[in-house]
Automatic annotation (TrEMBL):
PANTHER family assigned to the protein according to its UniProt record, in alphabetical order: GDP-MANNOSE 4,6 DEHYDRATASE, GDP-MANNOSE 4,6-DEHYDRATASE
Keywords tagged on the record: Lyase, NADP
Similarity-based family: Belongs to the NAD(P)-dependent epimerase/dehydratase family. GDP-mannose 4,6-dehydratase subfamily.
Protein name stated in the entry: GDP-mannose 4,6-dehydratase
Top-level taxon in the UniProt lineage: Bacteria
Keyword Lyase attributed: yes
InterPro entries per UniProt: GDP_Man_deHydtase, NAD(P)-bd_dom, NAD(P)-bd_dom_sf
Organism, as annotated: Candidatus Roizmanbacteria bacterium RIFCSPLOWO2_01_FULL_37_12
Cofactor annotation: NADP(+)
GO molecular function list: GDP-mannose 4,6-dehydratase activity; NADP+ binding
Gene3D superfamilies, per database record: NAD(P)-binding Rossmann-like Domain, UDP-galactose 4-epimerase, domain 1
Enzyme nomenclature, EC number: 4.2.1.47
Pfam families the UniProt entry points to: GDP_Man_Dehyd
Catalytic activity line of the entry: GDP-alpha-D-mannose = GDP-4-dehydro-alpha-D-rhamnose + H2O
């Protein structure tokens, strides 16, 4: 009998890549979407899998709806990808961010404890939990948390609640502390996609500039498709645990811009970049870099797509999209 997986946040960036992976392995995939919303299936359509997923209505802010979802599906595995995921907005939407990213995880864990305690649970934790936490220039599972945004703070709550349900109730709950991961279906509000989409629009004469914030911030960027594989591997282990997932290398926003304009074949990128104070964060995290040795050793996971290949992939996809607007 085929395994069943429930994915919350399936319409975001990671949901489609994880869904495609699970479908290829013979899973029946349920995707949770909010009731009364007008769902946008663009990310799933991009990977041509929308019609292969069974959708079920639920809301991370409503514990009773999550209980109903879990009771109805009783999945073998749950991947909680649902979140208010844009760090920049979390200062203006701190309450919503907390309700979805923190309390929503508690509601979902409670639902599993009551109605499906044998289900394996994956929590999408984040490198933003580390914030200023640093261990010799990198972060691993032993690095202390010092979040610098409402988003990071809410994720720390969810992370420790996931650990608590594992240690208190014996549930199989694992957290993936994922560093920045991108793809052609990344939302345009995120800096990487903002850059590649902007470069494509400049290339074809549909834009003249890109407004950005801190060009010196450094992140450990990988490909979302690679990171979906790590999520899956965490739930295939005999013992639940937490894993840092990243490439072990970091690059500045400036480097991302330079490569994007290079692949778009636009000379002198500096002519098109405007530093806009509106995009400066109240509290900046200046540098994040993973040390994913535990994942490499126990999961056998390794990133396949390099930083340069990732940027090229995203630029190529956005140039193709923008070109269709000219027809």
């Amino acid at each position: 009998m085929a395994k069943t997986a429930l994915i919350t946040g399936i319409l975001g960036q990671d949901g489609p890549y994880l869904s495609k992976l699970l479908l290829a392995k013979g899973y029946k995939v349920y995707g949770m979407i909010r009731r009364y919303s007008n769902p946008n299936f663009e990310t799933l359509d991009y990977l041509e899998i929308t019609d292969k997923i069974e959708f079920i209505e639920g809301d991370m802010g409503d514990e009773s709806s999550l209980m109903n979802v879990v009771r109805t599906v009783r999945p073998d595995e749950v991947y909680n990808l649902a979140a208010q995921s844009f760090v920049g907005d979390s200062w203006q939407m701190a309450k919503l961010t907390t309700e979805v990213n923190a309390l929503g995880v508690l509601y979902l864990l409670n639902s599993l404890k009551i109605f499906s305690p044998t289900t394996k649970f994956y929590q999408a934790s984040t490198s933003e939990m580390f914030g200023l936490g640093n261990t010799h220039g990198y972060q691993d599972e032993k690095t202390s948390f010092h979040p610098r945004s409402p988003y990071g703070i809410a994720k720390v709550y969810a992370h420790w609640m996931t650990v608590n349900f594992r240690e208190s109730y014996g549930l199989f709950t694992a957290s993936g502390i994922l560093f920045n991961h991108e793809s052609p279906v990344r939302g345009k509000q995120f800096v990487t996609r903002k850059i590649t989409d902007g470069a494509a629009r400049i290339k074809y004469g549909l834009a003249k500039k890109i407004n950005l914030g801190n060009l010196d911030a450094k992140r450990d960027w990988g490909f979302a498709g690679d990171y979906a594989e790590a999520m899956y591997l965490m739930l295939q282990q005999d013992k639940a645990d937490d894993y840092v997932i990243g490439t072990g290398q970091n690059h500045s926003v400036k480097e991302f811009v330079e490569l994007a304009f290079k692949y778009a074949e636009i000379p002198d990128w500096k002519k098109y970049i405007v530093i806009d104070p509106r995009f400066k964060r109240p509290a900046e995290v200046y540098e994040l870099k993973a040390k994913p040795e535990k994942a490499l050793k126990i999961l056998g996971w390794r990133p396949k797509v390099t930083f340069a290949e990732l940027v090229k992939m995203m630029v190529k996809a956005d140039m193709k999209r923008v070109k269709t607007l000219l027809v």
